[in-house]
Every structure is written in C-alpha cells, then in structure tokens.
Amino acid sequence: EKDKEKRYQSAGEVRSELERIEKGIPTTEKLVPKRKPITSKEITIKFGLKKLLIPSLAVVALAILVVIIWQVIPRKEAVSLEPGKSSIAVLPFADLSPQKDQEYFCDGMAEALLNALTNIKDLHVAARTSAFSFKDKEQDVREIGEKLNVQTVLEGSVRKAGEQLRISVQLINIADGFQLWSKQYDRKIDDVFAIQDEIAQNIVQALRIELSEEEKQMLEKSGTKDVQAYDFYIRGREYFQQYHCRSFKYAIEMFSQAIKKDPEYALAYAGLADTYAQYYMYCDRNKENLDQALLASKKALDLDPELAEAHVSRGLTISQNLEYEEAEKEFETAIRLNPKLFDAYYFYGRTLRVQGKHKQAALVFEQASQVRPEDFQAPTFLVSAYADLGLEKEASEANARAVEVFKKHLELNPDDSRALVLGSFALLKSDDEGTAVEWMERAVALDPEEISILYNAACLYSLMGRVEEALDYFEKAIDSGYSSKEWIENDSDLDGIRNHPRFKEIMKKL
C-alpha cells in the first residue's frame, strides 16, 4: 500500500524522495523491525487461544526442518486482491445454435455481463482481452481461473433458434471447482435484456456483494429495448475491438444500423463516435470523419447526460478538434460517473500528454493501469510520460513492467498484432532488438496490409538505424493510404530517415 501511494506522487516528489535516499537523509518510510531470532529453548505454537510449549530439541529440529521445506518448496501464488473484494472472469459463451452462426451474439452476451459487472466497486473483473483469450480452448475452468488470478469464473452457452433462446450459465468457485450458482433460461429473444439483468443480479447475490443505489441503477441499465439494435451494437463492438482500419469501417456500419433500429440508443452513438475518432486518428485524416465523430458524440450526450461512455466519446472527439480544456472536463465527468471505466483514464492521459502535461499524464496512466492491470496500452504511455519528464530511472523501471505485461498478454493472445507492435518498441527500449524485430515481423505477417502496422514498422527500423528497411515500410504505408502529413512531420521516430532523398520522394506522394 505504501508503494501504491508513492506512485501517485508527482514526478517532482518522486525525484525529491530519491535524492533524499541518495544523500542518506532519513526518508518518510518506517523501518521494518527486525524479528527476534528463534532459540532452541522455546518454540511457541498458537492453537486458537492456547499456547503450547515444546521443550524437546528433537521436535524443535523437526519443526525447523518443516519451516525450511515450507520456504523452499514452490507453491501456487494466491489470488491477490484488495481486502473485501471478490473477483470474477466472464468467459465467452459457447454457441450451441443449430447453424453455429451466433458467435457474435454469444460474445456480446458475455461482454455485456462483463461490462455491467465492471461497474461494481467491490468486484474485480478480469479484462475482456484476458478472459476471451480462452475462447474455443479445451481447458479446465479451475486452471483458467488461476491463470486469470480470479476467485470465480462465469461460463455459459447460448442456443438461438428463430425467436427461441436458451441460455445456460454457471458460476464456478475456483478454490474447489464447485458451482456457486447455475441456471437455464428458456425464453423469447425479446427477453434477452431481462435475462442479462437477472444473471448479473444472481452473481452479485452469490458473491454476497452489497450494492449501492448507483450500482443497482447501472446494473439494470441496458441502453435499448430493441433486440435488433442491440444485435447490431454488439457486432459493432466486436469489429471495433479489432482496432484495424478495415474493421473500423465495419464497426461504423454496424453502429449506424443499430441507430437506425433505435434512434434513441445513446451507447450506439458513443460507439459510432469512438470509431470515427479512431479512424480519423489512425487511418484517414479527412475532416469529414472528425465531423461525424463530433456529431455522434454530441447526440450520445444529449440522449443520456449520465452515461459515462458518452462523456468519454465527447472528450476523445473534441480533443482531436484541439479543444483540450473542455475535453479534460468531459473525462473527469466520466470518471466521476464511473470510476472503473478504463477508457476514461486512458484517453484522458493521452490528451494530457499531447498538451505536454507529462506529470499529470503519468498519474492518470498509473490510475488506468490500476483499473485494468492486464492492459498494455497505459503502461506504454506511462514510459513516455516519465521519459518526457527526464526521469530515466522511473522510465526504465516502468518499461520493464510494461514488457512483462506485453509478454503475459501475448501468452494468452499470441495473434494480437497491436500488442506485438507496441511491445516491439518496449523491447527496443530494453535493448532486446532481436525480439523487437521478431514481434514486429509477426505483426506484419498477421496483417500485411494494415496501414498503422506498416507505419510503425518504419518507425521501429528508423530508430534502429536500419534505413533501407525503414524506407521500404514507410513507402508501403503511404501507398496503402497513410495520409497524415502533419503527424509524419512531427514524429521524431522518423528522424533517422527524414533527410534521406528517398524519404523526400515518398513524401511527394502526399
């Protein structure tokens, strides 16, 4: 807890504390008292309220041997949680439909439950990227729970035939493998929202969690009552999560269809705004894309001013319109409405960093990492924030932590090209050029036409001084449609090739 509190100090305070240690000045930390050594005269063993004195030296020797063995033999790491908190992983539901064509619906059901449970303060929920990495894998649920470091796992299945819906769910206790709760629902498709709400409520009861009034309201909030609109929305979310230019286009179409079915669907407008904003940022700097993002985010807020996701979307879009002060207010409102919403912290941190507010950005990225420890994006930007502050030691330590997060994520998601790309830069900072190149080439092999990957490959090779390879990837990125001339001109990663005649020729294509 002391270490956690110290991470929230400003960069200047951290530096001051380090200087005090270097100069030998006593710090604010309390010294841990040394334990009194155990003697052979007496060993006190507690049994409830009694104390038993064992004078036998033979027994003493045996006890010491047991202690040594206990220290040496490796043991499984216990689930680490904040006091009083339960934890859960929601696995993707299995598709038992006759045509096996409802995978997106099954994933959407699981993700909707996961998102609803995330709003509960006293419940730690494993991130989607971690829980969904076990999709279609034959593995014991207890092993999955141990890998995800949770106490309980929710698994289920969906059978959808016409208007009929059968949903089976069970909540498993990882400690003993027993069911804490299970149920089967045979309903009409129109009842899907009521089923989701009932499942969430039963999980809360099974885990004996006390809900506040705000948490009860958030748990019951479905966003729409139109099943088809919801169907399109979860398809849009599925495409958006892939984080590629082509999938953004599909996501835009899905969110647009959801809005056609339910013009009052605030979450769908927020999803549309997020997608247009990311498409504008990474794929096409056409002002029309930004305008669409601005319109959709405003509509989401008009429809539901208390929706945290709507405030995040608004903050994201207006920050790209350079309205930084107003964007910060939107992110702060989102955090107030939902303190466990990762995107609020993540995009807030990015907005602070682009303004040069590196100290505040570092603190916000630290908070983002606490909200979602499995995430690899926030640690990456935290390294940059420390580096921008001139805190080389802190940046190096943060980068080492980031590398571990990347490795753990890629163990579960080996084909995540975005993680491979960002992780390659973290490895380069750790002087592991060989693995950095390997990860980047894996990302290119997975998505050989993805513009953002080609551009980042050019940046990586530029930083490494491999000029010809950097220029090859840079030209491929431009030929594939990368068009942000302003970003290229201000990207220091390309400084290694900027003065090359071929670079200047490629730039003429813009």
Shape type: globular
Q: Which regions contain 5 or more consecutive residues with pLDDT less than 50?
A: 1-12, 17-83
Helix residue percentage: 55-70%
The number of distinct β-strands equals 8
Query: What's the assembly state of these chains?
Result: single chain
**Mean residue pLDDT:** 80
Query: What fraction of residues sit in β-strands?
Result: 5-15%
The end-to-end span amounts to 52 Å
- Major sheet: size, sense and barrel closure? 6 strands, mixed
Structural class: alpha/beta
Query: Cα-atom Rg, whole angstroms?
Result: 26 Å
Number of helices: 24
Task: List strands and helices in order, with pairings.
Blueprint: H1 2-6, H2 11-22, E1 44-47, E2 50-53, H3 57-72, E3 86-90, E4 94-95, H4 103-118, E5 123-125, H5 128-131, H6 141-148, E6 152-161, E7 164-173, E8 179-188, H7 192-206, H8 213-220, H9 227-242, H10 245-261, H11 266-282, H12 287-303, H13 308-320, H14 324-337, H15 342-354, H16 358-371, H17 377-388, H18 392-412, H19 417-429, H20 433-446, H21 451-464, H22 467-480, H23 485-490, H24 501-507
Parallel strand pairs: 3-5, 3-6, 4-6
Antiparallel strand pairs: 1-2, 6-7, 7-8
